[in-house]
Amino acid sequence: MNKTPLVSLQQVHKRFPGGLQALQDVSLDLSPGEFVSLLGPSGCGKSTVLRLIAGLDQASSGQVDAPALHGTAAAETAFVFQEPTLMPWASVFDNVWLPLRLQSVSRQAAAERVRQVLARVGLAEFERAFPAELSGGMKMRASIARALVTSPQLLLMDEPFAALDEITRQKLNTDLLDWWQRQRLAALFVTHSVFEAVFLSQRVLVMAARPGRVVAEVRIDEPYPRTAAFRTSAGYAAICRELTLALEAAHAFDAPGAVS
Ligand SMILES: Nc1ncnc2c1ncn2[C@@H]1O[C@H](COP(=O)(O)OP(=O)(O)OP(=O)(O)O)[C@@H](O)[C@H]1O
């Protein structure tokens, strides 16, 4: 791909103060509008990669370039975590308004945009509800609405659907692709699920642990929109098999007691 990357990590190393080598020589690019997943065993540094790209942490050496590191463009990056992290005392509307409120946009001025994004995630009827009144899937929808409300260029997602039941997760996967395509954003998605990674992504980077590094890349050249029919296709099964083998190899790299 010859587009200028939106995100670029070049030979990034991350060593935590206690001495743990969390990332070793990680290089990756993400183009504008691209959907890439990071897949790998626990502790291989997936969240650390997202945190470096969000500007929440710094590399020990190597180069990181991403929109959030350019000061004024911080709002162009949104982060969604496994926990929906909604404010329990605030309505769905007010939770989604928050990022705009932090940019000094009044409730009234934000209303149209907040309602538009709530409609997009299927929560139009729930703007007055409080988080405790919502199901797990609806809380995650509200969390994603809050991420999308500023129209970010880059969406970082750290196992957002891991705590949801399978059917809810599949529905959110399908809807996420719809939101991704409509908003033309780039997405970097962390997951432990081969099936989810293949369904969503254009590319999957497989990481190994101790130290965390990228050990394989699998391209998924299947057209979008990807529907329920894709999930049951022979092509999907073949790519899941290829990625499972790559993940097994990544686990095999993870020798117990390896020096960190
Ligand atoms: N602030 C920190 N200080 C010291 N070590 C840390 C810190 N943050 C993460 N680590 C360690 O760095 C390694 C990578 O952590 P990270 O959370 O990025 O992995 P991960 O692949 O996202 O794991 P999981 O899939 O379990 O969420 C782990 O061994 C973790 O314990």
Task: Characterise the protein shown here.
With 260 residues, the protein is of the alpha/beta class. The chain has a domain at 7-83 and 153-253: P-loop containing nucleotide triphosphate hydrolases (Rossmann fold, 3-Layer(aba) Sandwich), CATH 3.40.50.300. Helix content is 36%, strand content 22%. It is built from 8 helices and 9 strands. The chain has helices spanning 46-53, 92-101, 107-120, 136-148, 166-183, 194-200, 228-231, 234-253; strands at residues 7-15, 21-30, 35-39, 61-65, 77-80, 154-158, 186-191, 203-208, 213-219. The strands form 2 sheets. Strands 5-6-7-3-8-9 form a 6-stranded mixed sheet, with helices on both faces. Strands 2-1-4 form a 3-stranded antiparallel sheet, covered by helices on one side. A hairpin with a 5-residue loop joins strand 1 (7-15) and strand 2 (21-30). Helix 2 crosses helix 3 (107-120) and helix 6 packs across helix 8. The longest helix is centred in the last third of the chain and has 20 residues, at 234-253. The protein is globular and about 50 Å long. The mean pLDDT is 92. Bound molecules: adenosine-5'-triphosphate. Residues 16, 18, 20, 22, 40, 42-48, 212 line the site of adenosine-5'-triphosphate. It comes from Roseateles toxinivorans. Keywords: ATP-binding, Cell membrane, Membrane, Nucleotide-binding, Transport. Residues 7-236 form the ABC transporter domain.
